[in-house]
Amino acid sequence: MKGFKIPEATISRLSVYSRYLENLYRKGITTVSSADIAQGVGVTSAQVRKDLAYFGEFGTRGVGYNVKELLDHTLKILGLNNTWNMVVVGAGNLGSALCAYRGFRERGFYIVGVFDNDLTKIGKKINEYEVLPIDKLEEVVRENNVEIGIIAVPAAYAQDVATRLVKAGVKGILNFAPTVLNVPDKVIVRSVDLTVNLEVLTFNIRRD
Ligand SMILES: NC(=O)c1ccc[n+]([C@@H]2O[C@H](COP(=O)([O-])OP(=O)(O)OC[C@H]3O[C@@H](n4cnc5c(N)ncnc54)[C@H](O)[C@@H]3O)[C@@H](O)[C@H]2O)c1
Fold it and tell me: Which residues are annotated as a binding site?
């Protein structure tokens, strides 16, 4: 798998396939064809086969894929065969919504700390999480082996928070602030900019 570049779109689809397979597994379905997966997630079966081919040989011609085996493979490829500890910085509207989202835990992502620098928020509870002072960030990251930091502060403060997260030892940052972050190459940043997504949507609506 190392040595050549796997398209990001393939990785995103792998995550979608994996969730689909998880559903089949829960329903007790044991085999599935690429056509079934394709129909279930809304892509072509050629695309499914091409995506999976990046990661080796799966399935048996004429029989299809063993659901459990393919699910385990996709989870392993996505790094989801173990759980991940995360911290959320910014306990505002978005940070609170992220803390309330159950879906993270179902996929093995555990929030172990929520931080803010607003004294009126520190000590308050968001679901089961008590908002912690930002000064505790490094300690919580270290003690809980946190590898992922989520930035949910206004753009003007995002770089400071990113620098602190990196110094504390996180390996990846999910950044919701609409700004570009400067981090060392070894740290992976994924930015979620909802406005950019909306604008891609409006571009495509107009173009069609
Ligand atoms: N709310 C949304 O739907 C939404 C959607 C997409 C992106 N975003 C982005 O997410 C970020 C947060 O948005 P929001 O609506 O939750 O804002 P918000 O103002 O409700 O919350 C931001 C929180 O960050 C805290 N904060 C500020 N500086 C900090 C620092 N240095 N350390 C720790 N905490 C700090 C504030 O006290 C506040 O509680 C923004 O960058 C915003 O552009 C928000």
Answer: 90-95
How far is the centre of ligand 1, averaged over its atoms, from the C-alpha of 200 (Å)?
Answer: 23
Q: Name the one residue in this structure whose structure tokens are 């309330």.
A: 100
Q: Where are the beta strands (DSSP E) in the chain?
A: 31-32, 65-66, 84-89, 109-116, 125-126, 129-133, 148-151, 172-175, 188-191
Which residues line the pocket of ligand 1, CB cutoff 6 A? 89-95, 115-118, 121, 134, 152-155, 157, 160-161, 176-178, 194
Q: How far apart are alpha carbons 69 and 24 in whole angstroms?
A: 12
Query: Could you state, in order of their start, the residue ranges of all structural domains in the chain?
Result: 8-77, 84-196
- Nearest alpha-carbon partner for 83 in 99, 107, 112: 107
The CATH number of the domain covering residues in 84-196? 3.40.50.720
User: CA 4, 71, 87, 150: dihedral to nearest 10 degrees?
Assistant: 50
Q: How sure is the predictor about 207, in pLDDT bands with cuts at 50, 70 and 90?
A: confident
- Per CATH, the architecture of 8-77 is what? Orthogonal Bundle (1.10)
Contact call for residues 97 and 71 (beta carbons, < 8 A): no
Per-residue pLDDT tens over the stretch 146-168: 999 999 999 999 999 999 999 99
